Amino acid sequence: MRELERDLPPTSARASVAIVGAGRLGLALADALRDAGYHVVGPLGRGADPRDVDVVLLCVPDQQIAAAARCVSPGDPASGPLVGHCSGATGLGVLAPHSAFSLHPLMTVTAAGARFRGAGAAVAGTTDRSLGMAWELADALGLRVVEVAEQDRVAYHAAASIASNFLVTLEAAAERIAATAGVDRALLVPLVRATVENWAALGPERALTGPAARGDTETVARQRAEIAARAPELLELFDALADATRALAQRPAGAAAEPDPRVTAVLA
Questions:
Q1: Most buried residue, 9, 18, 52, 90, by CB count within 10 Å?
Q2: Whether residue 9 has pLDDT greater than 50
Q3: Same domain for 140 and 22
């Protein structure tokens, strides 16, 4: 996977885009594209067949992409609507026979919306025309485009899930333990933010702190005993993460990480 730069031709007018799927991502993209000057139709419900638009962007669950694509009238291959999806893990075959593209913003989207500018985006296209549209939309949203090979899409999406979804699961565990000591989540927030900023700036090995990083096995053992007493359902997670953290602490800065399937299995 590599981040790309591409010169985009100037456009005299923005394309018309129909959004299919009124979930969080569909709503957020509809608002962002309108703000970027596009004529946006929708979000529309699943099963819609938008007419008189240049682009149909499917913001539906992965398992529903193929069915949603079949509902869109293909039109002329050279001038008919381009059909795209926003899945990170799904290829373009599910959009056949359309001139197809994918645009996956590498950003978490909640009910409050999302800020896309500055985030990453994986794009792909079956034709120069469709790939160009994926680039154009990403550029309009202020996204930083990366190229992910077809065979790497699931791994790319797994990395995104670990970085975002699993992080929330981990912080929920921290919040659960803190609550037993009368400590509110708000007190953990500055620590989490500083840790993420250190990881971004320094890399994992240099950002790591705490008893495992210091080799303080006694403190880690005392922590483990308290987890077992207060939240035994989190003990397996604690053990897996403690082992992985010890391994990270012993790794030279910049070295490739060895896979630890136990961590992924516990968090899944």
A1: 18
A2: no
A3: yes
| C-alpha atoms less than 13 angstroms from C-alpha of 172 in its C-beta half-sphere | 10
Instruction: Round to whole Å and give the CA distance between 246 and 223.
Output: 15
Query: Cα–Cα distances in Å, from 257 out to 66, 96, 208?
Result: 36, 38, 14
The pTM of this model reads 0.84
Q: Is 19 helix (H, G, I), strand (E, B) or coil?
A: strand
In the chain, what is the straight-line distance between the N-terminal and C-terminal CA atoms, in Å? 24
Helix (H) or strand (E) holding 55: strand 55-58
Reference 198, options 213, 185, 216; nearest CA is: 213
Q: Pick the last residue of a domain from 148, 176, 200.
A: 148
Structure confidence by residue, pLDDT tens digits, 32-82: 999 999 999 999 998 999 999 999 999 999 999 999 999 999 877 677 799
> Are 43 and 170 members of one domain?
no
Beta-strand pair 16-20/82-85 = unpaired
pLDDT in tens, 210-252: 998 899 999 999 999 999 999 999 999 999 999 999 999 998 7
- Cα–Cα dist 172/174, whole Å: 5
Which domain, by its residues, includes 240? 154-267
In this structure, are 172 and 261 located in the same domain?
A: yes
Element (H, E) at 105: strand 100-106
The radius of gyration computed from the CA coordinates of the chain, to the nearest angstrom, equals: 22
User: Residues 111, 6: one domain?
Assistant: yes
> What total of structural domains would you count in the chain?
2
